[in-house]
Records
---
Amino acid sequence: MTQPTERSLVDQTLALDPHLATWGAYQDRAQALLDAPLSAETVPEWVQAWSDLSADMGEARTSLSVYADLHTGDDDARTRLMTFLETVMPQAERLNQALKEKLLAVPDFTPAPDFAQAYRRFRDEADLFREANVELGVTHEAQMNRYGVITGNQKVHLNGEDLTVPQATQHLERPDRDARERAWRALADSKQGVAADLDALMLELLRTRRQLARNADLSDYRAYAWRELDRVDYTPQDCLDFHDAIRTEAVPLAATIVRDIAAALNLDTVRPWDYHRGALLDPHRREPLQPFSGGADLEDKAQRTFDALDAELGEQFRTLRTGYMDLESREGKMSHAYCAFFPRRAVPFVLMNVVGTANDVNVLMHETGHAFHGFASGQSQRLVWNTWSPIEFVEIPSMGMEFLTLDHMSHIYTPEERARVLTQQLQGLIVFLPWAAQMDAFQHWLYTEAPEDVSVADLDAKWLELDRAFHPWVDWDGLNMDHMRAKGWQYYHIFRAPFYYLEYAMCYLGALALWRGALDDAPAALARYKAALRLGNSVGVPDLYRAAGLEFRFDRAYLRGLMDFATAKLSDTTARH
């Protein structure tokens, strides 16, 4: 079911009318919006027409982008996407700026409550706009897309086979230490094969991002990103303080978890192949769980899970199964996992690379949580700008679903296996926090402190410095592999989503608090969860957290309280199983 057919859903969408990938498909409607007389009374109808036009352009972009990620070796697919980005998107950006200026000039207009947030964002975005950044933005998009081209066809030669990165990575979970080391070294060799290309790409991106900031009369790219990402509820210093809180509260706890596992396995030290944050080793030397066989089996088992959790969510997952998922890992497909969105249809699309592991189950729960967010906000909000939510909340629907589904997987796991999964999930959350802080700290340095003539060697050196601070439990001594360790910054988000990472840590705290509430009253917690999803992007971040029954906090005291809760649940789970 998940294997793409010769003419996949995305193919069919584009084949309906290739004209939709050109500016000519939207030009007349755009001009009508520009020409229409506008008053406070006519704004709502005019804004809805603008939203509909934006949704149609977003629909075409999603189709082109997803198809290119499913077929990274298809030059025509990449060309179609780049043609759209180079011809339609600059025109759309200029159009949106003109429409924002037209709207903001309407006298005596007071936005309705469900439009107030978008109206405020329009004002801020209009102030940030610079014509010089329109074409530079096309260059930036093309550069970011090259990351997928470089890594999409990456192969790992292991045990006489050529594997995809996800297929090779699952070997890092094996109890046989020699097998893990072989897999880790094979992955290191594969990564080294693309490292030089990614080095060069990063330097290009850095120059482009700095120029974007200069064009906007801002001191650095962090200042630009802060405004572009609409971060109005916290400051860069708050993030730096969060890094310190994680270093103080989470790093020692993570180190204890990893070292206790190593001690149980009689490992004298934790080598890089003994630590994989996505799936920590099993202290009892059990083989990795293999809870499903193939994408279709995973779909069936996930369907039963969501049906048991909630009838409405179960129906939404059935919709995904009608052609809005591609789960199998294969050559020529982007190796990441994500959830995209078709805004006109208000239907998401889930892309994954499953290989049969428990982590795959968890990732599907995660990405489907995003999909539920898309369904809920897309069906509840009349304006395209009010779908999804700010990025400080957007991972709570996904991370929360990882926890909310745990009690509905008896058809996937035995009670002992479920306890094992819960243990790994809680441990994984704790060890993830240092990684998130390290990723964010690297970017704060890169975009505010790195010298103008920063070199690849400087990037590597900074990453090594941060890695020693946030991951002190990994022993690299005597391996002569610092050149590989230093490339940890060559990660998807650094290239494709700058400054989008610490939000994962914020949202993990929110998801943990959501689960804590669900343990007391599961129906009420789920009802709050769904209500918050329906709000989409129509309210601010603190209001979204409140709707979900949560606090928007990431200070040291709050972090310590949640770490104490997670530790207590780990102890309880271990004692009972």
Note: The CA atoms of residues 450 and 507 lie 28 Å apart.
---
Amino acid sequence: MSTKPLFTPTPLAVLICAACAFPVAANAADKATDDAEVVQVWGTAISSSSILTSDIELKQADHLSDLLRDQPGVDIGGTHSMNQGINIRGISELDLNITIDGASQTNNVFHHVGNLLINPDILQAVDIQVGNNSVLNGGLGGGIAFETKDAKDLLKKDEKFGARLSAGFASNDSYSYSGTAYSQLTDTIDVLAYYSGIERNNPEDGAGVEAVGQEGSTENYMVKFGWDANQANRLELSYDYYEDAGDYTLKSNLGNDFDHSNYIRPIEYTRETLTLNHELALGITDVHTSLYRNEMNYKNTNSDTNEVSEGNTIVYGLKAVAETSYELAGMYNTARYGVEGKQEEAQKLVNGQVSDDPNGNDGTESADSFALYAENEIELINGLFVTPGVRYNHYKIDIMASDDTFTDTIFALATKYELTDKWTVRASATELFKGPGLTGSYLTSGSTYNPDLKAETGINYEAAVAYQAQQVMGLDQLGFSFTVFETHIDDYINDTMTGKVSTYSNEGDVELVGYESEFNLRRGNLSARLSYSHSDSEFTKLNDNSSFALGQAIDDEVGDSIAFNLGYDIADLGLNMSWTSQLVFDLDKDVEADSAKEGYNVHDVSLRWVPTSVQELTITASVENIFDEHYSSHASHDFGVSDYEPGRNYKLTASYKF
């Protein structure tokens, strides 16, 4: 069980308790997102619990940072194609709930690469949960659900077949191509086939220094079948294969200050995902079920010895979530409930054979998890909602450090209140649980057995206020939101190394505090968004033999940042123009390996043209890092050697839809 009571008497906790007790709480993003108008193009719809409206991203994204870095509370670390990693409020991807088409991405492979291989081009939607505010989410810091396109997304009304070809060039230093075909084969069956490739050379950073060990290519194949069995049932079966291969460095998260000369090798990093999704609509109840197998493999060949080393991690999973709307005792209710289970297995292989760990044991690690959860959103009076929730977690691990079983029942309470049709407030308190993760498959564990290894537990408090109005102050739309959070994590585990070179252990207790604020507006063809994000972390208690110091920040602390987006449409010419700026402040505090992280400011501009006379053609031109800033993201794992981002990059992409 969690050692921290649901309501800890901190200042923010007191505020939230009061908000839960009286009618002053609401989910600011929910209503605003529902009201948002979305125009579908070949792009990615991004919705976030921390923002007011859905965005359509029209960037020529070949890295997650191109797509998500300007979202409040979110940062993307890593510059290498294999090393992109998601960070939410300073919490890394290993403590987030990340899925692609419902398939969990918890495959921990190697601490010098990321644990997420994904192609931004084929994404239809990204749903970002900034912070954990519901028992439906199993991540310590929230999560991200990626959804890829299917034929139904792309076919116009009464269309039976379509195709799209695309090619792009980037001056620093890559080119890309893709092809998509989609069809309504019968009245009930649709299919999509997709292929894309990116060829990369070593880019230069803002100081004109060429990166080392990034020359290679990525390929992505995907086939997705949909079957509308009847009006109540839809099945989707998809196969998604992603390969990133080249003459890469083993230390892909370390910058040019590190000597990579002995680490450049032929490396392949692949993801193979098979997913079956089922959507069931039964009047007042909707059910979504995902059954999947997700395998990731990291392989390199030592040219001196011809030894082939591999890390292979497989996740099998099932998740079913239902939502039922009903009326009881004159009150409207929305019940959400579900079950999920995963089996994870990691193996270190040498020349195709499982490699033993240092103690002579079979170098295979495994983890089995099961969760059962439910929450009920009750409208007590008009506009006032209260949502209690409960989640049971069962987690069994078998690794060098532990063969223990961890169980916990956690609770959550959220309230929201629509004060008017424009003002909304919310508050929530959600207990947290996460069992120790597998230590990564590429290296055999260097950890000794630790009978005291514990699961991470804690609680997340949040409170927010939002304003959303149409036709006000001469504007077509005006919005504002402010969210403040306080997160406590007990028995924090530093996932950066996860027991590879020392004992896999709990470091101590961590407190994270911060806020996200956003202001947006639209008038005619002009739209603008300004956001400010702040996060601050520190160790409030240390366990024995911790590698951290009291008051020190966690490794992935990102600090303060401002993002500004400006867009303008000229419909008569088929033009869409946008400007994005991000200002990140210095992080002048102690973090492991670094005494400080330098701030930076980066600016991008983009122009998309869809000729009014040839609307099947789209041309997109952009300049990334306009002023050639020399910088590295605060979210990058650099171990004291900065992983500098690419410098100025001119991009041009042309696509044609048949």
Note: The first helix runs from residue 11 to 21.
